[in-house]
């Protein structure tokens, strides 16, 4: 099977893009929480917009590819209500919640100049998503490689392409 047509390879490649953004976010948060002048801190916080827009658009599309294309088909083999897919779904919701808290913390900073919540919610989001990606890469996707046949993979890929 052409690797570009393999849905698991496509999702793994999304994960690499997410990891780059999380690395950038970590760099921003370390500076924001460190010894910097107020104007520089404000400037750094303004630059978080590109990261929140990645989370709102690209990460959300990635979650939908998993939730609406991969999980229903893989769920036929390993179940959805319990087990690894269930855990992944809970973590997607936790990520959505943390991303809301992160964005709220950014808007609150604009009114009260407190940056601590930006750093703490951002750090929590990095930790959650890093561990989530590791679990998918090392556990869930291995299960998918073992269970899914080419016909199912094609069907998943086709569905993933329709998600925008
Ligand atoms: Fe996921
Ligand atoms: Fe994922």
From TrEMBL:
Boundaries of every Hemerythrin-like domain copy: 6-144
InterPro entries, sorted: Hemerythrin-like
Domain of life of the source: Bacteria
Cellular component aspect of the GO annotation: plasma membrane
Pfam family, any one: Hemerythrin
Name of the protein this chain belongs to: Hemerythrin domain-containing protein
């Amino acid at each position: 099977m052409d690797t570009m047509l393999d849905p698991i390879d496509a999702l793994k490649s999304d994960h690499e893009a997410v990891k780059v953004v999380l690395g950038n976010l970590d760099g921003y948060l370390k500076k924001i929480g460190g010894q910097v002048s107020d104007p520089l801190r404000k400037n750094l916080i303004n630059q978080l917009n590109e990261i929140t827009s990645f989370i709102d658009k690209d990460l959300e599309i990635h979650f939908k590819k998993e939730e609406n294309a991969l999980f229903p088909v893989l769920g036929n083999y390993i179940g959805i209500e319990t087990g690894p897919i269930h855990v992944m779904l809970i973590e997607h919701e936790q990520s959505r919640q943390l991303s809301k808290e992160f964005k709220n913390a950014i808007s609150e900073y604009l009114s009260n100049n407190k940056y601590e919540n930006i750093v703490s919610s951002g750090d929590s989001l990095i930790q959650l998503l890093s561990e989530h990606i590791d679990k998918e890469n090392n556990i869930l996707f291995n299960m998918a490689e073992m269970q899914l046949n080419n016909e199912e993979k094609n069907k998943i890929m086709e569905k993933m392409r329709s998600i925008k």
